[in-house]
Amino acid sequence: MSAHTRARPIIAVLTVGVASCAAPTAPRGDLVPDPPSLETQIASGLYRSCVLRVTDGVWCWGGAVAGSGVTNAAPALVAPPQGAGRFVTVSVGSHVCALTAAGVAYCWGENRYGELGDGTTITRQRPTRVLADVPFRTVTAGLFSTCALDLNDRAWCWGRNDLGALGTGSVAEGERALRPVLVAGGRRFRLLSGASTWCGLEAGGVPYCWGSVDGSFDPGAGLEPGDCTTRYGRMFTGRPCVVPTAVDAASELTQIAVGGASTCGIVRNTSAVCWGEGWLGSLGDGTLGSGAQSSRPREVAGNLALVRVSSGGVHACGLTPDGRAYCWGSNFRGRLGNGVAGTSIGCALVPTGGASCPPDQASAVPVAVVGEGRFRAIAAGSAHTCALTTADEVFCWGIGTGGELGRDPGLGDSPVPVRVRLP
Q1: What band does 34 get if pLDDT is binned at 50, 70 and 90?
Q2: C-alpha 290: how far from chain center
Q3: 159-163, 230-234, 325-329: which range is least confident on average?
Q4: Which residue has the higher pLDDT, 73 or 21?
């Protein structure tokens, strides 16, 4: 789940604390953000997507799911607070975050774990300032947690930490940070991506990851700072870590994208690799089933030259140099965009430990997204995908009953790209 942008990535500072009644002060620091390189951006996450247009700002749609209170999922303009200045980046996870040109982060949406970073657990319908003491150069919304990079390339995180997503060296059931806290280890990252697991790329292209993909905290595991066990480790190193830990990657990466089941990266702007859980084909290497998992990056099949990649819930997508889109993994409700849609989220086990999946259910190798569109950015969400054409038009496919496709939820899903009609 990621936002594509040319702006330099950031991680935000997080502090465990209670809500403060004092007005937030301006970010402090000796550095000021570089002037942003503005371009239209696309971002997708849990049930929703957003586009940032240079002409008029951030537009978001989706989120009309049971219990959300959202009834109109059509694209809506999200205005920055008065005096904040324009947003220059946007990111979507379980919530939405954006960054101003001054390096001030704002978040809105779900806030049960403090993922908005405003010192509270109050859900916000409008952008709310993150209570950080330093300016950021990017902010990334994950799954119930948020991370950012400051101007010195240090990572900060806030929100849910019972699976180690904050990277502080601590992990405890129910632990959370309501404001940014500094990720342990002192490493400097140039790129950042995250969901329940977070990964950063160092300047040399080495990925470091922390957090966990497991669905529940196991107090019997006895995790200590820096200790990672195989039970938790399908996502990155063979062990989930509570501090940034190097991935055993054979090649330097130029991009990284963390999803719900797997993490993918681009090797020297020429090809894609993935690692983590591949039960439904999200590694893209041709494997399926209970044995399809890897703690080391595996090359995505098909001999495709991929220059961009995005990881979603249980699928991933990439772009070729000429803008053609390919996706792999689960095709439940059409999220691969290949013209067919699976009606079940599972596949049948076979005696060898692999899985038998109908062609419409999942693909363990990249399949072409139908249509003649050429895209320059792609964003895989939890069960849908959106992409931005070279003409800055937005197309989405996959699940649509929550408005994820930018249209009436009653129109349902689409296994082919449909255009999002922005005002």
Answers
A1: low
A2: 24
A3: 230-234
A4: 73
CA 135 to centroid of chain Cα atoms: 21
Take residue 165 and report the two structure tokens written for it: 């997503």
Domain-by-domain residue ranges, the chain? 1-19+31-211
Query: How far, in Å, CA of 221 to CA of 175, rounded?
Result: 16
Token pair listed for 167: 């990277």
The 3 state secondary structure assigned to the chain is CCECCCCCCCCCCCCCCCCCCCCCCCCCCCCCCCCCCCCCEEEECCCEEEEEECCCEEEEEECCCCCCCCCCCCCEEECCCCCCCCEEEEEECCEEEEEECCCCEEEEECCCCCCCCCCCCCCEEEEEECCCCCCEEEEEECCCEEEEEECCCEEEEEEECCCCCCCCCCCCCCCEEEEEEECCCCCECCEEEECCEEEEECCCCCEEEEECCCCCCCHHHCCCCCCCCHHHCCCCCCCCEEEEEECCCCCCEEEEEECCCEEEEEECCCEEEEEEECCCCCCCCCCCCCCCEEEEEEECCCCCCCCEEEECCCEEEEECCCCCEEEEEECECCCCCCCCCECCCCCEECCCCCEECCCCCEEEEEEECCCCCCEEEEEECCCEEEEEECCCCEEEEECCCCCCCCCCHHHCCEEEEEECCCC
Nearest by Cα to 286 from 302, 271, 263, 270: 302
Domain 1-19+31-211: CATH class, spelled out:
mainly beta
- Once rounded to an integer, what is the mean pLDDT over residues 161-184? 90
Inter-residue contact 141 to 115 (CB < 8 Å): yes
204: DSSP letter = T
Coil/strand/helix, residue 265: strand
DSSP string across 206-242: -EEEEE---SS--GGG---TT---GGGTTTTTSS-EE
pLDDT-derived band at 250 (thresholds 50, 70, 90) equals: confident
What is the pLDDT averaged over residues 70-96?
Answer: 90
